[in-house]
Fold:
Amino acid sequence: MNSKEYSKLSKEISYALRHAPWEFELELDDLGFTPIESLLQSLRKIDGWKDIEQEDIEKMIFNSQKKRHEIIDGKVRAFYGHSIPNAIKREEVEPPTYLYHGTSPEFIDDIRKNGLLSKARQYVHLSEDTNTADIVGKRKNSSPVILKIDTKKAEEQGSKFYFGNERVWLSDIIPSSCILFMDQYLNGE
Structure:
């Protein structure tokens, strides 16, 4: 497989594990894992993936810049981004003092009013650095706003944080009082 095919495979597996496991006849456990053999059997029913082997998925995971999946003990899962109804259980972890979130300027008024909410996903996605937050924000708008999250303040207000992978942190909700908005940066706050 070439890099384009690995990218296509990653998207297909992400869709199966994060958004529509029932379409692939997959059962996810409480941690989001499913037997890799079940995933392979489902993929083999799709044109273009008839000859897929576990080695192909392992290479896709190894070569991916964005670590979205993992294989452990014959099971595979997506790390984050789930929109399926049943929440994937995660272990609460102490986050860095500040995390970041990139978003479109059009959402700022709603975020000021309601905070950061998971909406259609299970968790709010946060980054450890502004560069990653900027990249994520550019998926929504070419000139995103970067929000700075005071995690200690958020924890005091009941927010919980979970480790997604080396670039992504997850939370259930971030109250607006814990978010430093762009104009606050400009005003030296």
About this structure: Residues 103 and 145 are 5 Å apart (CA to CA).
